[in-house]
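Hey, I'm writing a tutorial for new members on how sequence and structure tokens pair up, and I'd like a real worked example in the thread rather than a made-up one. If someone can provide the structure for the chain below, I'll link this post from the tutorial.
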Amino acid sequence: MMCRIFSACPIGVDADPIFVEADVRDSRNLNIHIVGLPDTATREAKDRLIPALTNSGFALYTGEIVINLGPADVRKEGCLYDLPMAIAILGAMGALPRNALQDVLIIGELALDGEARPVRSALACAETARKQGVKQLIVPCGNGDEASLVEGIEVIEVANLAAAAAHLRGSKPIDPFVPAPIVRSPALGIDFADVKGQVFAKRALEIAAAGSHNILLYGPPGSGKSMLSKRVPSILPSLTNEEFIEVTRIYSCSGTLKREPTALRRRPFRAPHHTASPIAMIGGGTYPRPGEVTLAHKGVLFLDEFPEFPRSVLEVLRQPLEDREVTISRASLQITFPADFTLVAAMNPCPCGWRGDPRKRCHCSFAQVHHYRSRISGPIVDRIDMHVEVPVMSMRAIRKLPPAETSMAIKKRVLRARAVQFRRFQSIQFTNATMQPKQLNKHCVLDEKTADHLEETMERLGYSTRVHDKILRVARTIADLEGESDIREEHIYEALGYRSLDKHARAQYLQEPEGGSR
């Protein structure tokens, strides 16, 4: 006899519908064969299914069991097919009514005692079930929270194979899973009030947060670059419902989703070490998984010690910084991962780190500084909207400063600016940093005097067209923070002031002294 049920196959951060077929025939020996392009973990299910079924109280007699995972030309990865395969076997044996298996999608891993264990990609599978018009989704205990984020489908959590079979048989029906009320994320415990001084850098980070602009901080060790960067999430707006579901799907598909109810209620903050590989940064592998740029989607990607990252790692950032997505190509498939993040990078100004320090401790030559900064290619620097110098401050000066502004006060201004952008782009999830040329021409109109000044500066400093557009986007955000409908000349001046690394690079090219020895 043959039985067919529905399941889902995770691919990237989505899932495709598949069907699981089981055929049971008389034979001298009990054998299970799994076909349909299973990977090693899926193929090993045949050694888990027999003890899981027998330990759950189901009698298996001698017979030939063939399980087909279709479509047969799609690679199946992982152990989330254990539970649907076991249910299909029971249906083929006549232990379950077939009509109860026609309108349900099942995923889950099985232990040898029949316990159902949570799997990754439950949210993506739930979205697939809704698209297919399936009424019920059966998942292991622990997957209900994320699966229930999808509206229009009943989620049934099962503790083990026996409970799933009893529910489908109708002898012990299980009520649909009811998610816990949404709990607001607790405070991060870090605040911009912890950082005294550095008013210029704080202003730049406020602009970056308001418009989702990429920013690079550079300065001597101990000036506060890392401390400032790690506080950026405290001034970002909370995730919207759509963003929350999108981010949860990414973490679920990558297998890194935490089970705490508030685990992803705040925006992601990823800070990979500078020894990360290109694949770890961009994603990939035999079965492509999301990398750091995707795990930072709708949040912050913080790269400390920016020039210490291998050149190959920094260069793979070109596409996601420009397109807000990354495409992984393999011989058998092509997957596009979302990568709409805000880059916050930090670096020292020279190899020893002390260039620009008032105590004149730097002895790096011009060639050494040039070599150090050239680790970051021109195309990458071009794609970073703002470059901000963070000077070192003496303890005496810090002690005399008044209490610093809190993150909550800064966040209120950021939220007001984001609200302006929300209305401007008519509810589409755009920020000023992601404006396309058509939107740029519409929302960043300059008067003739301001336009002439910007063009003159562009020619004098050798800026690219990309930099010109980024200056306009930053100026648009500055105007939004000040509640101005038009971009004024002072907004352009301020935006130009956040390209200091370009000016230093030009000074080096002309061999103009910046401090320290040549």
